[in-house]
Amino acid sequence: MVSRTPYQNVWGWVTRPTPGFIWLFTSFLCVFVVQSIFQLAQAVPLTTFNEMFALSITGIRKAYVWQLLSYGFLHQDIMHLLLNSFLLYLVAYEVEYQIGVRHFLGLFFTGILTGGLLWLGAEHLKAGNPTLVLMGCSGGVFATIFGFITMFPERPIALLGGLRAKFLGIILTAIAVYFIVFPSNTVAHMAHLGGILAGIAYLKILSYQWRVDMTIGSRKMSSSASRRHVERAISRTDFIHQKVDPILDKIAERGMSSLTEDERRILDEARERLSAKRVA
Fold first, then answer.
1. What is the residue-averaged pLDDT of the chain?
2. 140 and 235 housed in the same domain
3. Residue 32 in domain
4. CA 138, CA 196: separation in Å to the nearest integer?
5. SS3 letters for 105-150?
6. What residues have CB less than 8 Å from 265, skipping those under 6 apart?
7. pLDDT on residue 104
8. How many angstroms separate the CA atoms of 271 and 97, rounded?
9. pLDDT tens, 61-102?
10. Backbone angles phi, psi at 236, to 5 degrees
11. How far apart, in whole angstroms, are the C-alpha atoms of residue 206 and residue 155?
12. Which is it for the CA torsion 144, 147, 151, 153, positive or negative?
């Protein structure tokens, strides 16, 4: 039997609650309690609360522009909430650890916004029911999942027989496109597609921005402070390429349980360096 380190799940990577995930999940629960209170008090399918904060064509026509983000905090029922939260939890640690809590939340809300806009556009084009509402954070969840896939395309998923993350991404995208072309249920696949596109674009743009910042920083040597900043950044980059990348490759192939004490120490040091980078 292959042993796993604490928080490592059957998917093949580490999971644990992160500040970003805890904030989002707590918000989901609080909003769901308010939703439930309105549902019990009004006893109608579309309560006043949902009408104000769920996304709809009618709401946008009334200039309820906050709906483009607020709908992501609403859920149809407790199972809807728990499923979205579980999927977000699976990748939250890996994504937030790599890009920091600020970009983690930025990635999530970009998925919510993009998913909502695509859904609105599709509903407008097909002249659907203007009172139809969209609820759920699936756009943000898909953005986070595809942020993970963009960063770790070759990561094998143990529970899926070692299927590479990039192939899971292809499958999820194909499913979303198929049900957009041939709709057969009430799931907002257009919002899923928006999240997919947002996740890929956000990570690509973020990666490009970091490369540009490094290039600009290396040219600005007019002060000792800027030189020290660039030297620290280059030192971190070399450390990651020379020391950390081989360990990550080993984890991808053989799992966390294969690491030696020295390799675990290097990972801890890398975590400290990245944390210091985020604070700066």
1. 81
2. no
3. yes
4. 10
5. HHHHHHHHHHHHHHHHHHHHHCCCCCCCEECCCHHHHHHHHHHHHH
6. none
7. 96
8. 8
9. 999 999 999 999 999 999 999 999 999 999 999 999 889 999
10. -65, -40
11. 20
12. positive
Give residue 251's domain range.
223-280
Q: What does the block give as tokens for 110?
A: 């970009």
3: tokens are: 């042993």
Question: Do the domain assignments include residue 12?
Answer: no
Supply the angle between the helices 78-125 and 189-219 in degrees, to the nearest 10. 90
Tokens of residue 37, six digits? 């209170």
Residue type, 163: L
Tell me which residue has tokens 């198929």: 178
**pLDDT at residue 272, as a whole number:** 61
Alpha-carbon span 159 to 175, nearest angstrom? 20
Q: What is the pLDDT of residue 39?
A: 86
75: tokens are 């859920």
Q: What's the number of domains the chain is made of?
A: 2
CB atoms within 10 A of CB 250: 15
Nearest to 139 by CA among 81, 192, 76, 201: 192
5 pLDDT above the threshold of 90: no
Q: Where residue 77 sits, what CATH number does that domain have?
A: 1.20.1540.10
Residue that is written with structure tokens 């609080």 in the block: 30
Do residues 199 and 111 touch, judged by C-beta distance below 8 A?
Answer: yes
- Residue partners of 201: CB distance under 8 A and separation at least 6: none
